[in-house]
Amino acid sequence: MAAIFAFKCSCCGKVHEGSPSYAFKAPDHYASLSEEQKAAMGRINTDLCTVTRGEGTDYFIRTVLEIPIHGVAEPFTWGVWVSLSEKSFKRYVETYDEPVEGDGFFGWVCNAIPWYPPAEPLATDVAVQLGGKRPLLFLHHGGSDDHPLIVDQRRGISVAKAQEIAEFLQHPA
Ligand SMILES: [Zn+2]
Predict the structure, then answer these.
(1) Position 3 confidence tier, pLDDT thresholds 50, 70, 90
(2) Cα 69 off chain centre by
(3) Per residue, what are the HEC states of 26-44?
(4) Separation of 173 CA from ligand 1 center, angstroms?
(5) Which of 96, 100, 124, 166 could anchor a disulfide with 20, C-beta 3.0 to 4.6 Å?
(6) Ligand 1 centroid distance, CA of 11 (Å)
(7) Number of domains in the chain
């Protein structure tokens, strides 16, 4: 039977309960800007972000990347920003309050995921969710040389691996 995730932390000795989740406040493209650049070029709230450079604008939305944990009901969740085309972004904004079931977009992951090795931009499908939940992210998979994050989303991770990543996130070196 699926259990609730909890573990005694090897860093601090406390019991951390609940499946781990980690969220980025902004896409890396925005976070890496100076304060002046953010004020001049960027716009952001909890779910939407744009960065305008000259003629071009980049569009980002916040999504949920779920990694199943073997034997545990709730997945490991990452709050990840992805870039969308202008057309997709406009559709997402227009239907934000009343998403249309089955709507989906192509997006690129725009955060470096801690613990995992650096990745080339990862391609994804973004699926809207109803009921006020953020869209779900599905990483495209290719072949045997897939990034470990892609493999983990497809196959799930062990409780031990979830614990190792959670400890890394809660107690960064
Ligand atoms: Zn701890």
Answers:
(1) confident
(2) 16
(3) CCHHHHCCCHHHHHHHEEE
(4) 12
(5) 166
(6) 5
(7) 1
In a domain, 7, yes or no: no
Q: Which domain holds residue 116?
A: 21-155
71 alpha carbon – ligand 1 mean position (Å): 22
Pick from 152, 157, 101: nearest CA to 128: 101
Distance 109 CA to ligand 1 centre (A): 28
Per the DSSP assignment, residues forming a β-bridge with 78 are: 22, 65
Q: How far is the CA of 168 from the centre of ligand 1 (A)?
A: 9
Query: What DSSP designation does 99 have?
Result: P
Q: Evaluate whether residue 102 is within a structural domain.
A: yes
- Ligand 1 ion: residues within 5 Å (CB): 9, 11-12
pLDDT digits (tens, 9 = 90+) for 140-156: 998 778 999 999 999 99
- Domain-embedded: residue 9: no
105 C-alpha to center of ligand 1: Å? 37
User: Which two tokens mark 47?
Assistant: 């779910």
> Is 109 within 8 Å of 29 (Cβ atoms)?
no
Amino acid, res. 78: W
